[in-house]
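Box 3.1 A note on notation
Throughout this textbook, protein chains are presented in two layers. The first layer is the amino acid sequence; the second is a token string describing backbone geometry. Keep the layers aligned when reading.
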Amino acid sequence: MIDPAMSGPTRLVYAVDDVREAAAGWAPVGIGPFFIVDHIELLDVRVNGEEATFDHSRASGWWGDVMFELICQHGLRADAAPIVGTSGLHHVAHSVNNFEATSAGLATDGHAEVLSARTTAGGGGGFALHDGGSARGHLIGIYEATPALRDFSDMVRGASIGWDGSDPVRSL
């Protein structure tokens, strides 16, 4: 059972081959503008419980009431292949106030942790991806609700308000 303290979905995240190309393709339907971060630096990465690396890039835009993200994993290794495919809905993300307890609760409820890490920016908030099972068909993402995460979300959302479609892909 999903922890009732977990927020409703805050992000829809799609796996793509190229974040810039995909962002340019989604922008004409009114999602955006997209903000690109290449080769995101992470700390304490664990994949299936083992120390690992996770090199990926992200494009973040806004769609309705949620952040819409595109991710691409670089240097795919055989043991990391399940983390990011090359197309389709990858994970639905939720912001959580008690990251460790929520992650442990998901694992206890049969949603094994696939990846966990901390960001290097904005105080090092944690995030994890858990197996959503065949009923969901995607991973469950949890993100520690930090001020830096809220500020980034607010910036992306703010840029979308009144956006006229110009300059749809922006590097950070």
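The domain at 11-163 is CATH 3.10.180.10 (2,3-Dihydroxybiphenyl 1,2-Dioxygenase; domain 1). The chain has one domain: 11-163.
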